[in-house]
Amino acid sequence: MKQLTTFRNQFDFQSIRWKDMIRWFPGHMHRGMKDLEQSLSTVDGIIEVHDARIPHSGRNTQLYQRLVGGHKPHVLILNKSDLADPNYLNKSIEYIQSEQPNTQVIHTSLASIDMKEMTNLFGRLLQQIVESPRYTRSSTVEYNIVVCGIPNVGKSTFINKLRNLFANKASCEQVGASPGVTRKMSEKVKISNRPKVFVRDTPGILEPRLKSADESFRLLLTNSIPIQQRELSDIIADYGLFLLNKYDKQRLYMKYCELDKPSDDILPVLLSLAKIKHCTQIYRDKRGYDLTGTALHFINEINKGTFGQITFDQDILDEKENEKLNDTNLFKTNSGRIKRSI
Ligand SMILES: Nc1nc2c(ncn2[C@@H]2O[C@H](COP(=O)(O)OP(=O)(O)OP(=O)(O)O)[C@@H](O)[C@H]2O)c(=O)[nH]1
């Protein structure tokens, strides 16, 4: 008889004290937020970069409320679209614009963007900023843009692409696979002459308090919060497996980990992977499999897209879409015509 595999509907956060485990709001973030606020009077536009796989999780609402406040032109780049589910890219834009109607949202993959696409992208961003009223800064002829967002979403990559494109300069912002590479607000960098446009990079800033366990784990999984305690890595890998089973119907991880059936338990997955990768360590004079290292490897592969393009916030986007459908309160009459209920 064919064995059925049942999958978890919910991840069990109860057995882990995730709030104690994940506290990450280093001093440079607090300082970064202050610097940003202080520079606001000279800023003409805010470009926020976020990870397209988590259009809801980790969006720093303080950034929006305290910086944009409905007055400054605000463009949101949903980056790393190469890793997100293509079916959810437009849904993500709709979701964000329903919450922040004045924000222009664009999705892209800055890692693989070509010169032409980058020129188009920058043209669209600039148009939004140039066409907006400048109030106190109407007399100046230069435009100052700040690039902000949470850690590891591609802010420095964006600025480097701009510099390469317009100023013909080599990359200057440090890009890194781990979060928190940029520690302070950069000096302004001229990227275009006509009109004169300057950009400034900022450190990744998270909200001081994370809203839920799911949100925190999605930030850990996408590398926006560093995994400071290695012991946490198998739980995060397990959370990744939970999402892969939920959202990747092809179960691509099975092939990579050489499993003959999907698993809802991370242990057999890690054991198989450790064997394939010869990931071992010596513990109390005995050599055994290094499951912590293997868990980090598994998380890394998720972030390389090895297990497919996955949007981790699908549940939130679907819920919002259902709410919208219910709100319209439509029903069909016998004749098949749609009427609005009273
Ligand atoms: N797959 C993929 N990776 C990307 C993309 N854009 C940037 N990255 C990678 O994401 C990582 C973080 O990029 P950064 O530009 O350093 O991100 P940041 O937001 O400046 O990071 P902080 O300095 O931590 O705030 C790097 O490893 C980049 O190569 C993308 O479109 N797709």
From TrEMBL:
GO cellular component: mitochondrion
Domain (G): residue spans on this chain: 145-213
Pfam families: MMR_HSR1
Any GO molecular function: GTP binding
List of residues binding GTP: N79, K80, S81, D82, N152, V153, G154, K155, S156, T157, G204
Top-level taxonomic group: Eukaryota
BP-aspect Gene Ontology terms: mitochondrial translation
Record's keyword terms, sorted: GTP-binding, Nucleotide-binding
PANTHER family attached to this UniProt entry: MITOCHONDRIAL RIBOSOME-ASSOCIATED GTPASE 1
Known function: Plays a role in the regulation of the mitochondrial ribosome assembly and of translational activity. Displays mitochondrial GTPase activity.
Protein name according to UniProt: G domain-containing protein
Protein source organism: Adineta steineri
Top-level taxonomy: Eukaryota, Metazoa, Spiralia, Gnathifera, Rotifera
